[in-house]
Design goal:
By secondary structure, this protein is an alpha+beta fold. It folds into 2 domains: 137 residues, Elastase, domain 1 (Roll); 169 residues, Neutral Protease, domain 2, CATH 1.10.390. It is built from 8 helices and 17 strands. Strands 4, 5, 6, 9, 10 and 11 form a 6-stranded mixed β-sheet that branches. Helix 5 packs across helix 6. The longest helix is centred in the first third of the chain and has 23 residues. It is globular, with a radius of gyration of 20 Å. The N and C termini lie far apart (61 Å). The chain binds asparagine, zinc ion and calcium ion. The site of asparagine has 5 residues, from strand 10 and helix 2. This is M4 family peptidase. Belongs to the peptidase M4 family.
């Protein structure tokens, strides 16, 4: 017997106890989310191939520890599920390609592999187990980030170099943050950082700071709070800084804020204050700009124009939101 939409109970490392969509198949349950396009979660078993679908005799999954191989799978399945639901509820989108068909995810890729990636060819997500195989890369912001590379690939197709590369990365950080807030999971308190739970550098610090990107300084480079003529020469994970900062300012506004108990200080380029329009509206502006106006070669000036067009469509050219979009770009040194 093969019943359709099932809810299993899992315990993830980062998300705690959650419901995940599963499928009953004969004597076992499979980690296949039939209610969301058939997303399957696989165990690569520390190799580089897909491996086998996760199964369970009793529809309970993982125990929150990394010694249990299903724990990372629970977080990955939950991340895919929250990303699917976020796209649906915020944007009316039916999966990454808007065709109702899910991607799939594989966990336990490689050995001590401290990264995760989206692959357009398999239309799939891959997660490593992190440093010492102790911190799988399966937190919500990373899941949302990586799957949103899939969204960019089927929409604007932003080229992964120069300024468009930074906008590609920023799109993933922006939507990954949106997924984290959407899930509002009590164990993974929503924030404006990327990668605060996975510790891939072993420093205990986040990978990226949307409110203050230049705090991300590693041995390979430094991110930017504001656009400069040198932005295009940076790695996309650093040239994303001004766009991430734009999104934070458009959402929350400038100055000091406490959000979910976390303090942020977000300096603007020329000190001019920016009033936020709220994250949900900022997400709508970015999504519309990405899916309707940006192209493979969009640069920062083009992103400003694209988001202003999106704000005009959504709220009108004399709206406060339109003005806020212009002000938030000025605050990261992207002017008319
Ligand atoms: N985790 C990285 C990213 O999505 C993977 C990569 O750079 N290919 O940006
Ligand atoms: Zn990325
Ligand atoms: Ca985060």
């Amino acid at each position: 017997t093969f019943d359709m939409v099932h809810a299993g109970v899992g315990v993830g490392k980062y998300n705690g106890r959650v419901e995940i969509g599963t499928t009953h198949n004969g004597r076992t349950f499979e980690m296949t989310d039939t209610g969301r396009g058939g997303h399957g979660t696989y165990d690569s078993n520390n190799t580089s191939v897909r491996g086998a679908l996760m199964t369970s005799p009793d529809d309970t999954w993982g125990d929150g520890t990394v010694t249990n191989r299903q724990t990372a799978a629970v977080d990955a399945a939950y991340g895919a599920q929250q990303t699917w639901d976020f796209y649906r509820d915020h944007f009316g989108r039916n999966g990454i390609a808007n065709d109702g068909v899910a991607a799939y995810s594989r966990v336990h890729h490689g050995d001590g592999y401290a990264n995760a990636f989206w692959d357009d060819y398999c239309f799939c997500m891959t997660y490593g187990d992190g440093i010492g195989n102790a911190k799988p890369l399966t937190s919500l912001d990373i899941a949302g980030h990586e799957m949103s590379h899939g969204l960019t690939s089927v929409t604007a197709k932003l080229k992964y170099s120069g300024e468009s590369g930074g906008l590609n990365e920023a799109t993933s950080d922006i939507l990954g943050t949106g997924v984290e807030f959407y899930a509002n999971n009590p164990q993974d308190v929503p924030d404006y950082f990327i990668g605060e739970l996975i510790d891939v550098r072993g420093t205990g610090k986040p990978l990226r700071y949307l409110a203050h990107p230049s705090k991300d300084a590693s041995d390979v480079g430094t991110s930017q709070d504001h656009w400069t003529s040198g932005t295009r020469k940076l790695d996309p994970h650093f040239s994303s800084g001004p766009a991430n900062h734009f999104f934070y300012l458009l959402s929350e506004g400038s100055g000091r804020k406490t959000i979910n108990g976390i303090d942020y200080d977000s300096p603007t380029f020329d000190g001019t204050p920016v009033a936020g329009i709220g994250q949900r509206e900022a997400l709508r502006v970015w999504y519309r700009a990405l899916t309707l106006y940006m192209t493979s070669t969009t640069d920062y000036a083009g992103a400003r124009a694209a988001t202003l067009s999106a704000a005009t469509d959504l709220y009108g050219a004399s709206s406060q939101a339109y003005e806020a979009v212009g002000n938030a770009w000025a605050a990261v040194n992207v002017g008319a």
